[in-house]
Amino acid sequence: xxxxxxxxxxxxxxxxxxxxxxxxxxxxxxxxxxxxxxxxxxxxxxxxxxxxxxxxxxxxxxxxxxxxxxxxxxxxxxxxxxxxxxxxxxxxxxxxxxxxxxxxxxxxxxxxxxxxxxxxxxxxxxxxxxxxxxxxxxxxxxxxxxxxxxxxxxxxxxxxxxxxxxxxxxxxxxxxxxxxxxxxxxxxxxxxxxxxxxxxxxxxxxxxxxxxxx
Length: 214
What we know:
Elements: H1 2-8, H2 16-19, H3 23-31, H4 35-57, H5 60-76, H6 87-105, H7 122-127, H8 134-153, H9 156-166, H10 172-179, H11 183-203
């Protein structure tokens, strides 16, 4: 399995049946022993899984190790996957459990001085739409950097629900399933996380006010 995950980064996704397949079709193929289906699932979900984990543990090498662990656990448990659920939510739940286990084992509440999540990509990808000029893009890149750093200061419970809601766009119900929390707890953590994030940004001079529910 490790060799399969190691080879995914070089896989070009040229197998049309895999790239066009639904999650359910890939799962069925993987259960039937298709290596292409396994690769398709890893290729489709490795970035969001790694993105969540690295922002939780704030350590790139550890996040890479945990991401591989998540996919190994997922494939071993694939026969237990309930097709009535979204596969992404099922996979995020495995990632949540693996991450929380490590957070509980060590002193991983603190944030390193160097931000391991900043590789010039994720938040900027969403902020580039409608950019009118280089100066506007520069400002948005600065905002993306600030968001990364500020989210890193949130306590893990707030950080996770904020990422699941606003980066991965999961519903409240899906977040509740992933985190094994009640809907009320999810909404409370989102509300408090937004408040805390707004306060951090305000302290840094961005003059941000708390956003509404969304």
